[in-house]
Amino acid sequence: MEHPVLWHFTFSHFAEKVRWALDFKRIPHVRRALLPGPHYPLVFWMTGQPTLPVLSIDGETIADSTRIIAALEGRWPDPPLYPTEPADRQRAVDLEEFFDEELGHYLRRFLMYHGFEAPDSTARGAAFFTSGRGPAARLFFRSLFPGIQAFLRWRFDINSETGEVARTKIAAAFDRIEAELQPSGYLVGDRFSVADLTAAALLAPLVAPPGYPVAAPILGPAGEFRDALAARVAFRWVGEMYRRHRGTSAEVRGPAAVQRARPLHSLPR
Fold it and tell me: Residue 253: pLDDT above 80?
């Protein structure tokens, strides 16, 4: 059986959601980090849509973090991310959907807006988006960054008004976490589930807990907002979820990864 291949952005919190699920279940897998912008032709060819993460598994190519985790749960049910009790399971997937739609997209917009407004946005943005790559990639991406930044502003509707809406959405997500927390310290029942994983992973770029691979540069008004949130229960809870459950990577590296990863020409369209 070939190892699953995860196509992702290193810095992406939606990719972190999938990486965490793979690692939590101890699923050996190969990771292929792409650069935003140049990734478009490949990802369109693979899936017919432009977004990551994408998982290639058992001859199937799956886009969207929620669908990927559902596929992993079906193939590797232990340890589970979905509660066994039907009512708890529904609550967990409802919370996953809430944090995907009402937090993940807005946090991305908030960080981009404030990052793009910084005086040194080109240098910081190029460093952030090329995290883990060498100086040549960083220099190349820096030359493209003004155009990529303009495209991202259009693609994600990034402006002062939507940036302020995003701020309120993030605060509301903190409220939701604190309202939903059970005596166990988890959002559903007495054990870690997809609800906890999703909320913690999607907040990771803001909280920057140990174990998250890339810390976003959060300066100016965004930094002041983060500092104001740092005393919140939900902020500390993200760090606790990482401490308890993030664990070690199940990524396959070296010759085994080269041997097991499917070549591009064999990927399904």
Answer: yes
Q: pTM of the entire structure?
A: 0.88
Distance CA 260, CA 226 (A): 41
pLDDT of amino acid 257: 54
Residue 44 to residues 1, 104, 132, 149, Cα–Cα distance (Å):
26, 22, 24, 20
226 closest CA partner among 95, 115, 65: 115
Q: Sign of the C-alpha dihedral, residues 264, 76, 102, 205?
A: negative
**Complete DSSP assignment for 104-131:** IHHHHHHHHHHHHHSTTHHHHHHHHHTT
**Helices 105-117/220-229 angle, 10° precision:** 140
CA atoms within 13 A on the CB side of 269: 1
Whole-number Å distance between alpha carbons of 236 and 81: 22
Look at residue 268 and tell me whether its pLDDT is greater than 80: no
Cα-to-chain-centroid distance, residue 182: 24
Residue with tokens 């965004």: 222
> Running DSSP on this structure, what letter comes out for residue 100?
I
| Domains delineated in the chain | 5-81+249-266 (3.40.30.10), 86-245 (1.20.1050.10)
- Is-contact 188 92, C-beta < 8 A? yes
The Cβ of residue 48 has, within 10 Å, a number of other Cβ atoms equal to: 10
